[in-house]
Write a structure and sequence with these properties.
SH3 type barrels; five-stranded antiparallel β-sheet; 23% helix; 26% strand; rod-shaped
């Protein structure tokens, strides 16, 4: 009774004269998983990332912020230390995040509607939702 491969089972292993022997690590790489949808995982993570919605301030809060900005303008030469909370829009999707920054105020440009901090950060005045600091406790 003849079994399968009985005719070639005892032949020597073939060695190619034209192609070099492949290392085991390279052979294993042939069978590694392949990501057919490159970037798909990143797109899913970006879609799942949560952003905050911009809060619309009422007139009372806007007036309070204007008063605090005027106090800062009056004390700008002393570079008052304050904490500003503002809305930072997200560059990739609707919404953004609320960020708090603490530091000294260097300049307020009411024409360009920008508040410049000593550390170089530029904050749009229209995005500010809160200003706190020792200069407001008087």
């Amino acid at each position: 009774m003849m079994k399968t491969y009985d005719d070639i089972i005892h032949l020597p292993h073939h060695v190619s004269f034209t192609h070099p022997h492949m290392a085991v690590i390279n052979r294993a790489a042939q069978f590694s998983p392949f990501a057919a949808l490159t970037g798909h995982d990143a797109a899913i993570k970006e879609t799942a990332r949560q952003t905050d919605k911009r809060v619309e301030l009422d007139e009372y809060v806007k007036d309070s912020l204007k008063d605090r900005l005027q106090t800062i303008v009056d004390e700008i030469k002393e570079h008052p230390q304050i904490t500003i909370t503002y809305f930072q829009p997200d560059g990739k999707k609707d919404g953004g995040a609320y960020v708090s920054v603490t530091g000294g105020v260097k300049k307020i440009d009411l024409y360009a509607r920008i508040l410049a901090m000593i550390d170089g950060e530029m904050i749009p005045i229209d995005d500010i939702i809160g200003i706190n600091g020792e200069i407001f406790e008087c």
